[in-house]
Amino acid sequence: MIHTFKPSRYYNTIGWHEPALLIHDGDTVITSCVCAAGMDEHEKTITQRPNPMSGPFYIEGAQPGDTLAVTFDRITPNRPFGWTRNVLAQNVVDPDYVHRLPDRSAGVGRWQADVAAGTATLVSPETKLGTLSLPLNPMVGCFGVAPALGQAISTATSAEHGGNMDYNGFVAGVTVYFAVNAPGALFHLGDVHAVQGDGEISGTGIEISSEIQFTVRVLKDTHNIWPRGENVDYIFTCGNARPLDQALQHATTEMSRWLMADYGLDGVAVGLLMGQAVKYEIGNVFDPAYTVVCKMPKKILAQFTH
Amino acid sequence: MIHTFKPSRYYNTIGWHEPALLIHDGDTVITSCVCAAGMDEHEKTITQRPNPMSGPFYIEGAQPGDTLAVTFDRITPNRPFGWTRNVLAQNVVDPDYVHRLPDRSAGVGRWQADVAAGTATLVSPETKLGTLSLPLNPMVGCFGVAPALGQAISTATSAEHGGNMDYNGFVAGVTVYFAVNAPGALFHLGDVHAVQGDGEISGTGIEISSEIQFTVRVLKDTHNIWPRGENVDYIFTCGNARPLDQALQHATTEMSRWLMADYGLDGVAVGLLMGQAVKYEIGNVFDPAYTVVCKMPKKILAQFTH
Amino acid sequence: MIHTFKPSRYYNTIGWHEPALLIHDGDTVITSCVCAAGMDEHEKTITQRPNPMSGPFYIEGAQPGDTLAVTFDRITPNRPFGWTRNVLAQNVVDPDYVHRLPDRSAGVGRWQADVAAGTATLVSPETKLGTLSLPLNPMVGCFGVAPALGQAISTATSAEHGGNMDYNGFVAGVTVYFAVNAPGALFHLGDVHAVQGDGEISGTGIEISSEIQFTVRVLKDTHNIWPRGENVDYIFTCGNARPLDQALQHATTEMSRWLMADYGLDGVAVGLLMGQAVKYEIGNVFDPAYTVVCKMPKKILAQFTH
Amino acid sequence: MIHTFKPSRYYNTIGWHEPALLIHDGDTVITSCVCAAGMDEHEKTITQRPNPMSGPFYIEGAQPGDTLAVTFDRITPNRPFGWTRNVLAQNVVDPDYVHRLPDRSAGVGRWQADVAAGTATLVSPETKLGTLSLPLNPMVGCFGVAPALGQAISTATSAEHGGNMDYNGFVAGVTVYFAVNAPGALFHLGDVHAVQGDGEISGTGIEISSEIQFTVRVLKDTHNIWPRGENVDYIFTCGNARPLDQALQHATTEMSRWLMADYGLDGVAVGLLMGQAVKYEIGNVFDPAYTVVCKMPKKILAQFTH
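Above: the input entities. Below: the structure tokens describing the complete assembly.
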């Protein structure tokens, strides 16, 4: 079943909030998300920062101990205006370089997103970059399920439940798997970026409001701790923590668990395989918790699975 | 001029050692490197761990304050036998997962490198991976110039002078730039991996002896602190430190300096560009210092440079 | 006014929960806290882990932007039985030492707390330590105010709002200052330790149920971000984060802000003073966020304040 | 035997340098050290930064595998003038607070050390601190033995061999134990601070030239990896690394090894004891490697050792 849902309120935490819509295993939802600053498709500020969430969506039958699979079918900016901060974050440069950075309050960059052309073009400020044009790559910055213990966690950060991971690989075609903590899972999403470099190192991507179509499934037989995902070429795991070292430990451990449980590898096979074939990517290094993604090529897995 | 050089001794530090060969700006050297365990092309152990270095090569005219550019023209394994450790390193998994790892002393993996076929194939131990075959991607794990202050630094680690960075992007066709600290720069190299996943997370790549051809140039007008490099598609910078956060800060700062000095960008242009277009890769996360690489696509730089 | 309050329910998060008791500026509360495992003064498990909180206490007149001052007047274990985990945590030792640790599930240590004698004595297991006796030092492990944005944060961790800091300096006689986020501040407390080494490195102190007497004040003119405190000899600040480096940055920055705002120092005076006179202590290094305390001796401050 | 030794040259690395003086097990040396900036007792700059080392002292009979014990008998400033940087280091405050720091190049603080009075008094610059007077606490900032593998490591940093640990507990009366790597151990020392807060957070203590008397012993039966030490009240271990978390892991692991090898404790006894009785202190958090000290009270150890 396909639901079309227009949010009437937004949340700045991911938590055990009143469900906005009840859906079922296999259902598809088309909804809209405001940008990180709470501006809608008309550039009107209708809610507050940080990263307002659409939802939560209550998935009938999802129980603690289950896994919720969310497939992003389509992520489409629904206005041309995107904005960025225009200075590197202080925490991504050497401490003795911080005073070389321009004043962080010096305004925002304006970008023009053209969905048909598949580009995002710099409009202002005026710099040597001119009208720099980048390939559009709409991604969901912040999404996840209600965390354990009845917690409500700010959408500025991330943890086992997902949250503000800002990984530019969370694009249409990707499926993400979350461990369910609350009855109904309570899925939240928002904070779309039209384009974003690795790390979200200026503190934003090109922030934009969007229409998102996603499809949910409830899985009864997986036991992940950290978010897992897959796209056409890779399976992957996400670790969220500081420092990056710990985020990488979480992602690596989750991949090891996955390969042992679902691909029949023992610890030595995991060491031999991951040691030679693993790829890492960096989600955000701006927010309180950083994100590291650990990827394994499906083509390599296919050599020993049938 | 092309020099063919066969090392008669090896070093386990990168330091102000007696030059092994004097060469000039523009010269090319063809030399051999033993594997990380000191085994040569006949699988004979001729020197000791860790990561024995060929060289140092004294480049006439290279002075402190200059930059040494080294281009890897060719990296060719010169024996079929490569070896790996076969268990994930304890420091790349969650602390409470360490006791799940197999015993680290449980032997090594044997791999067959086939240069003609472009593959590395698992020979032993026997696991569900069978005769897993991976694309050959010969890379130089450890190389660099004599560090500042007359230091001699173990080839187990890395710093501003280079060292054991274990980045699987250090392949043939890449040029790397080092700030020169000692007269003649004193370039060392070794520790080739036939294949290696990101992070060198089992503590090795497929360790192999090799023949390497490289070409040097002395540059008088660049002022990098951390190693820089370029390949066909990217310019990139390397940061070496723990935690990964600091390695990333070094690489990010070096890229900002580079873009401002050589591409005419101001701080706002740097923030706008890097924020949306930067890519990060992870060198090793096994050794005392970790490595992060910050990359910028040349295709994007071409939009505003002429 | 003095309130005696017996909790009828407990919370495993610090959040915007229904107030348990309304009190006023200047009031004193005598209440009881179960131990970290939810056991009361009769060793009966009456609620669930982790770290059940008594409260929250709603302080009339406390508004976002104010500071809540809480003075611990008395912290008295109300049963003789205290328990500890008996193995070092995996994250406080070198990764390659983890496999040397005993099995973490190997039971708990039992200790006898004697309030009159001022000691805690090891009862079991039997080890070479025999009946090791340590000076009693009752401290509050976890306490704080409702966090910003309507968050509810697990009592296993800590942040700007306080939480599970496990600093063994939070003893009777100490006053702690929190920035207020929610109307009424919503103060929670619990998780008393009869004794605890720095860092809570075995994952517990000697966990015990207690009676606590505290007094609150609402301050209108301070602007701390991180918890501040004072005892007879020191003023101090707390930073909660991972890695420890960041916790230390938060505590150091908060102390600098305090010295500049309330002691009239400029940045150079702060650098001269803190550089030579600051003391650091380590709260827990076991939980998701670590704690560092930055202390300044009042005796030194007295030299230039009148 | 007591040697009086006046250095004729200084080193900016700790390495396998030509011995300056040969001494024997049990000998005492009285020597002088310039300050961190290379200024002698007449405030004359006679050598270069960073942290010039007196020595190395070759101890006859000390072999790799042995332990060198160094007792600081006396540390006496030999000029009244001490200097400090006067601004907090950028890496010890929050990244978004760095731009609030005064310009780091803004000159130095001048202090008057009075050995007879036991004080260090601020002379300039003029601030609200006035003539702040602090208790003299002369400590050795940088010292150690030649590192493994023939390395020569900058005196700006620290590692297993010791180095620039800047722990304000390295005062007269302390004995420090180092694992010997080179024949003769090759002991270096220098960089005395008249006073220093924890962490060396402005990047210096009160830097001063000094006379130091120390006594050496060669031990054949201890097997430490990281520096160990003891004073009247404590035994302690030092870990040097970044982040602080790793320095703490090293120190904690070394203490566990010590308690198990020399005090007969098993892993459970270590967990029970260290969990309740350990104290941590922070050496420098300014240099490339940070230092954490793990302490155990002798009075508690005395309860179960005879």
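Note for the figure: Chain C has three helices and 22 strands.
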